[in-house]
Input
Amino acid sequence: MKQILTIFTILMVFQLWSQSDTDMPYTYSNSLYHIEMTQLYEGEALDITALLEEDLKSESNFPRAGIIQPVELTLYNSGTWYDLLNGDKLWRLKLKIPNALAVSAYFNSFYIPEGGKLFAYAPNYDEVLPAYTAEINPETGFYATDYVHGETIILEYYEPRAVSGQSAISISGVNGFYDMIPPKVSDRPTGDNRAGTCQVDVNCSEGDAWRRQRDGVVRITVVSNGNTGFCSGSLVNNTAEDCTPYILSAHHCATDDNDINATPSDFAQWLFRFNFQHKDCTSPLIIGSYSKTGCTKIANSTNNGGILGSDYLLVELTEDLDESKTPYFNGWDATGAGSQSGVAIHHPAGDEKKISTYDQALVSSFWANTPTPNGSHWQVKWIATANGWGVSEGGSSGSPIFNSNGLIVGQLSGGQSECADVNPNGQTLPDLYGKMSYNWTGQQNVDLIGPYLDPIGNGTTKTMPGNYYLCSQGTGVVNHIDEFEQ
Output
């Protein structure tokens, strides 16, 4: 790995300033802190063509889209420090992966004291992630930022004099994405995106009856053995109605090319983006999206990517949910009854939320060419609708499929469906979803999911409605968004 360092030891004196006065980095409004006066770490350039060809030949189901290059960068062996007049300090470091579509940072030590703030942003400030503060310090020390578009991400840490020397920030990896990155909103005049042209935006008319279910679906930036990628998942309700932030996804999202399962430290760096969706059917705007970092594995189907079972994964978020963001906990049906019609909501190619529709009965099936037990999966075929012909893509894995009652009956393992411009008649090909009922039974090395989603009945309850909850009030139910806002 190549490392290029431009190091300045600079003592600069400026006016008094408090980070709490703004949600933007200090350097945004202080032109004397030029970007070129900041230390640069540059990793190996990505050979995107070679990486995409490698993925095409891979037999893995892991949805790889980026590679984490290991580093050992701390506040004290890298970056540029600035001293402010009142004794406060400022630290900044540029991280670059040439040819990357987007870049993010991974930490193996992360502690920010009260009053401190860490920002991550693009060099021209057109993308600035929300500040990281003491409120999100992870117990494990492992953490990750979301990405910013382009080859470079800048980290900027403000440290008040009162907590000088108390912070601990150690960067263990710089992630360069080479695939599945939606273009910046400023680069697209309409709602056009990275996913296939036939995909249907969740906020088109097809999604009108599925607003609640939409609010429970999340995009997941997954990490396993130095690789990153995108999957989909959903918040799921439980019979205790206690707001436990369980996320249902696919087990193969946690298994890399070598069948190596994600480690606890990997899970601690998974990132869950809520409300990653367009404002409306044709708008490129994204309003109200936010992320939570870190989870712990609760249960899963089996090894070998999970395909030998129903390919499910249940994790629990380590960060508390903010009820002001109106999280929705989706309900589920584990009876095995299937459905005559319904939808799937997902993030194909890591893109903004999409919806696919079916109007024929789900067919009990299994994962072909493997010793998968019969009846472990639902087979579904999609139909054309008013605004397209929704299918699934890489990045859709783990997404929920809903029955006509709006309850989850399975999570996506994979399939053959594609847009017609990729594969003629590809929309008519089937996809396979691991059954929620099979997750429940625990056959062939499948962990029982029932005791977690039904703690009251220890897995005896087979259906549970979804709802918005006032988590700070225990089981306070919010039946409608208007009521929630009131």
Summary: Residues 1-22, 481-486 have pLDDT under 50 and may be disordered. The first helix runs from residue 48 to 57. Residues 356 and 390 are 4 Å apart (CA to CA). The chain has six helices and 29 strands.
